[in-house]
Automatic annotation (TrEMBL):
Chief subcellular location: membrane
Signal peptide, first to last residue: none
Lineage: Eukaryota, Metazoa, Ecdysozoa, Tardigrada, Eutardigrada
Disordered as annotated region, ranges: 1-21
Membrane-spanning residues: 286-307, 359-378, 436-460, 496-521, 542-561, 665-688, 809-829
UniProt similarity note: Belongs to the anoctamin family.
Protein name from the UniProt record: Anoctamin
Cellular component GO terms held in the UniProt record: plasma membrane
Amino acid sequence: MKSQKRDVEAGDGKAPESLPLNDFKPRKSIKYGFTGDEESLFFRDGRRRIDFVLVYETGTKTKALEYKRAEKRVNLERAMKKEGIDIETSVQGIPGEGPEAQLCYAKLHAKWDLLIRYADIMKLRMPLKKEVEEEAYPEDEISRYCPPFFRVDKSVLPPSPHFVSTGFSKSKMALFNILDRDSFFSPSQRIRIIWECMSRIQFVESNPSGVGIQKLLADDTYLAGFPLHDGPYEAPKGETKKPTNLRAALYDQWGQFSKFYKFQPIEHIKNYFGGKMGFYFAWMEFYTIMLIPAVIVGAVCLLYGMITMKNDIPVQEVCTHPDVKDTIMCPICDRRCPYWRLEDSCMQSKSTYLIDNPATIFFATFMALWSAVFLILWKRKQTILSWNFDTYYATEQEEQVRPELEAQIKPDHWKVNPITQMKEPYVSPWRRILQAMLSGTVVFFMVLLVLAATFGTIVYRTMVNVAIYASSQSADAESAQLNDDEEKFAVKYSTYIVGFTAALLNLIVILILNSIYYRIAKWLTEKEYLRTQSEYEDSLTIKYYIFEFVNTYCSVFYVAFFKGRVPPPLPGSRGVFHLPADRCDKGGCLIELTIQLVVLFLGSNLVNYVTEMIIPSITRALRTRKILGPRLRDKREHRWEHDHAAQPYPAMGLFLENSRMVTQFGFITMFVAAFPLAPAFALISNILEIRLDGYKYLTLYRRPVPTWAKGIGAWGKILENVARFSIITNAFIISFSSDFVPKLVYLAAYSMDSTLNGYTKWSLSEFSRLDFPFGTEPVIPGRDWSPDQLPETCWYREFRTGPARPRPYNLNMTFWHVFAARVILVLVFEHFVMVMSKIITFFVPGIPATLKAKVLRENFLAKETFYEAETSRLQTPTSPGTKRAQNLPMSPIINLARPEVYA
């Protein structure tokens, strides 16, 4: 059945009453000219721009439900008209749903009176008449020193003009640079205003909590609500191929992977998507650029390990030394694991040396300083961006109360805010305390759940290790010898098999628990009655990251600091609940830590790519076929139909993006000593992420409502804490997980020739076969021994007394020497990095001196504007019948703006 379409205009087609007809300008764009998509961006009169679209269905549900939803829509539209929103409705049939089924698009346009009223309430910073001739402070200091090849093409995305600005006020409109009412408020500002208005409109007259468009979207009264994209994202076909709108220009310079080498147009991203997304991509770009020196140093350290491996004495002793390689080692698990010779760990020892070599401590120190410098420079850049984004002076009290809070709190519980002197919802301290206790209890329970999952992974490691050795037995039960071929594939590579499968299992558990807890954290945050959206997101951020930190890094911390140490690594010792102990494999625990990090790091990136790119692409193709299928053949589709077919912008979409990047930051800072290639993987991943995110938001998703932001919010504090914590973790990994300190102690106090000759034997302790606890002695002797000729003693990695001593298997003096050296290294490492960070902070201030000068100059220019206006008002004669204008107070906070001028 052909889809039918009719346009129903809410009104008589005339211009809004608040604006004279001759004030309407023909549709146009200051930067871009529209070609072929104009009717999709404006009302039928070609003058009123579509600021928002609401979508709903009729004739597909029961009559009772249809009537209930229709009543809400009628009330909402009636209230919107009173507020100053024009409505024009387009209706089309729904194929396959019957003749009465219709898909309706309510297109909304904000009148001038609504715009200036809400701009005054929201204190949007708008340009004054005094124009600043010099350019704004450059937001990206690095790009200035790069060739033009890496910069954005200014002919496609030219810089915006700059003006002195201040918070908008209806009573002082004469001071603002209102050249054209149609272009004074940019599209993103118009979207913010109309969304703020709809979020506070009551749609159920008898119920004070029936407020806000979000509730109507949640209960399917409206299927969707979204602002329109500026037009098609692809440039028109032709000789020039020049983008015709800001979306196409961004796609040309930013949203394609072929432009991965270019800096991002942060200013224009902010103009199109809002300040919050602008800060996110600015942080991503800065973080990616800062990774380059870390990648270089990490590669040099890894190359050093590869070159010096053949000359490393401990590796040579394990692999080739005749007196060392044949050392009989104790089984690494109970009963099913055989005795083995030290030379069996030759490959694992070489792999460990690539990570644990003399360059490791230098790399860890460098990365600790790198994280400190990164945060200092990011704070500096964030200050510059907040100045250029016009949010430098924004305060908490300027942000509006969340509409959800106004709906939750009854009007009789409102009180006057002592700062703004306006009535706001009031929540008692006791109510907040009880909710905080509930949140803390739930978070604690979820953390215990993570610990339980980690314990399950430990049991899995132990059981799989035992199963590998048990399955390697020969079918001949009498000989009980290991089959050589099976040993090559199972026993020899057990470290990698167990490490990889355990890490993969851990990754699956992490993703499932993160998904569950995100919903729980949102529900808890909703119950906290937070005043502003920023407070809401900060609370959700902290609550969610506490859990995510434990969930993501718990298993990594276990492998790095507890595996092989708790319980004590005596052969045959038992763990928690008398379970077999989870011991380090033949090559030690550091190689297992590296495997864990690689799987978690790369696996999470792969999962995110699938969930954020492949699945949305398939979903959009199916939605486009369903919604636009019949109309694509008729070539009658419109912009609102195209955008409706796109994927809905995910709620709190940037929240999960930021969370993933901060988790990645934790991987490359806290555990970089065990994963030198982490910065390289992060660099490649981020280059892909930036372009894929740009492509995703420009092509696959509907345009989000632009949001205000002063920075990256609570994520900044989390980054600081992660960077501080990374100093401690790297110090402990070098001191307690690697062999750096034992080798240093051996060279300083035990070596006979000031070399590492004899180090391998020195680092081992002896154990008697007769001292195995009952039920833990090996039943598989190994390929070199028969059941009747088992070795009397074996060796294990630890500093303990031998079986012949009066107090066997106690910690010896060597252990305490090494332990003292490890503690000293931790203290020296930590204090050195912290002192260097303080020195760097002193020499690199958070606010550049040139920016301070610009602040003072712009405040001076703004004051001059007010002085001139006041002087002109006093000199202008006032007729007796005209009221004297109110005094114009000087604005205490004024700064340089970058107004958006695209249509």
